[in-house]
Specification:
The complex is a heterodimer of chains A (112) and B (113).
Chain A (H helix, E strand, L loop, with lengths): L2 E4 L3 E5 L4 E3 L1 E4 L6 E6 L5 E7 L5 E3 L5 E5 L4 E6 L8 E4 L2 E3 L3 E3 L4 E6 L1
Parallel strand pairs in A: 2-13
Antiparallel strand pairs in A: 1-4, 3-9, 5-6, 5-10, 7-8, 8-9, 10-13, 11-12
Chain B lengths: L4 E3 L2 E4 L5 E6 L6 E7 L6 E7 L2 E5 L7 E4 L6 E5 L8 E8 L7 E2 L3 E5 L1
Classes of the chains: A mainly beta (112), B mainly beta (113).
């Protein structure tokens, strides 16, 4: 079955510095992968998606992610962190062609 | 397109009571999903509808839980005889095709006291 592992439960960066949130996946076929952001007490907002097209995917708010099949990874990056980026981030995968399956998430803290 | 709407936003109930939540998906989306999220965890899949047909239910969905989507439009999730362990955020999402990603609502936070 398809699954994801978010390698860091918590990442802390300073405002203006790069962000890297790591996600590894397990899939027996070409996966569909997503990144979502969740601000406190809010629903989840789609940042970007990978569905077998370009391996470098650009999303909203300056985020992008690179799909690397050889490393089974789909890490999320942003060149310069902003205070408003502080949130929980998830990289779910489609399982069984029907539903998103989530990992534990990564909490991103931005220091002023 | 006003997004996915969930009501109520918050619900506090006494243990043993029944509660019902409502989800209004994006009108052109044929798929609707319910997830449960507890503090510090990722969302867990509960159930999934395509149009009015409930196609999959998680083992998390005990016999106290029931979901409906009459006429393939809005959906309701009912929990009977609530327990403290049911306290969580209940998220609804909708999509047109599964590879397009889901649009999530803001959720209903349930507190069972």
């Amino acid at each position: 079955a398809q699954s994801v592992t978010q390698l860091d439960s918590h990442v802390s960066v300073s405002e203006g510095t790069p962000v890297l949130l790591r996600c590894n996946y397990s899939s027996s076929y070409s996966p569909s992968l997503f990144w979502y952001v969740q601000h406190p007490n809010k629903g989840l907002q789609l940042l970007l998606k990978y569905t077998s097209a370009a391996t470098l995917v650009k999303g909203i708010n300056g985020f992008e992610a690179e799909f690397k099949k050889s490393e089974t990874s789909f890490h999320l990056t942003k060149p310069s962190a902003h205070m408003s980026d502080a949130a929980e981030y998830f990289c779910p995968i489609i399982q069984g062609a029907q539903k998103l399956v989530f990992g534990q998430g990564t909490r991103l803290t931005i220091n002023p | 397109d006003t997004g996915v709407s969930q009501n109520p936003r918050h619900k506090i109930t006494k243990r043993g009571q029944n509660v019902t939540f409502r989800c209004d998906p994006i009108s052109e989306h044929n798929r609707l999903y319910w997830y449960r999220q507890t503090l510090g965890q990722g969302p867990e899949f509960l159930t999934y509808f395509q149009n009015e047909a409930q196609l999959e239910k998680s083992r998390l969905l005990s016999d106290r839980f029931s979901a409906e989507r009459p006429k393939g439009s809005f959906s309701t999730l009912e929990i009977q005889r609530t327990e403290q362990g049911d306290s969580a955020m209940y998220l609804c999402a909708s999509s047109w095709g599964q590879r397009e990603g889901y649009t999530f609502g803001s959720g209903t936070r349930l507190t069972v006291v």
